Amino acid sequence: MAWAVTIAAFLASAVEFVEAFTIVLVVGITINWRSAMIGALAAAVTLAVIVAIFGTAIVRYVPIDILRLVVGFILILFGLKWLKKAILRYSGLKALHDEEAIFEENMAAMKARGEDISQIQPTAVALSYKSVLLEGLEVAFIVITFGSNSTSTGGIGGIASAAIGAIIAGILVILLGALVRAPLTRVPENTLKFVVGIMLTSFGTFWMVEGFNVSWPFADAFIPILAAIYLLASFAFVMWLRSRSSVVAKSKSIAG
Length: 256
Description:
Number of domains: 1
Number of helices: 8
């Protein structure tokens, strides 16, 4: 299941890296790139220490069944939260996440402060550090949880598989951003979040049930089946919400 862990970590991490990169880009363009890079690199070092310490401790000292039960439950909560937002967005009840709008909003706020951009700015460093750290903590969580629950590679090898996916996602986002020097608006983030929500919920369900010492039919091969079930259920919810909102809109127009 190493490949599944790597792919899941790649997709989930890509979402977080896109969001973090947008803030770093704002800092670099509006103030200076030295401040942006210092903050981002400091956050990356902090995250590396967190993963190295807590990732290893979790694998070595927490019983695997308890870990699967707790982490599975947490992943289900994360996955359902992402799925809820994705369903509401695709049903038209919630605005789509617009990375370009976020970029422009942050840029306007930083320009309004009128800071001196000729030197390294502590405020800019802190903003870059905070954004990378917060989004990176979610990446670290993804690496640790997916990796430590990998049954095929097991233990530290599982974390390595998840870390590979996260590292590849980070490199691709940085390279793409360096090439276009603009918000990554062409990355289908809403679709990516929908897919990641499905994957988080599927993995969480699989591991939580295994935490109760229940064996799944077809073992790890049942994960794609779970993903298909959640995908069909989500599609059904989107269709139902669209039809319901359409009926409500028609009734309001008639009443008006």
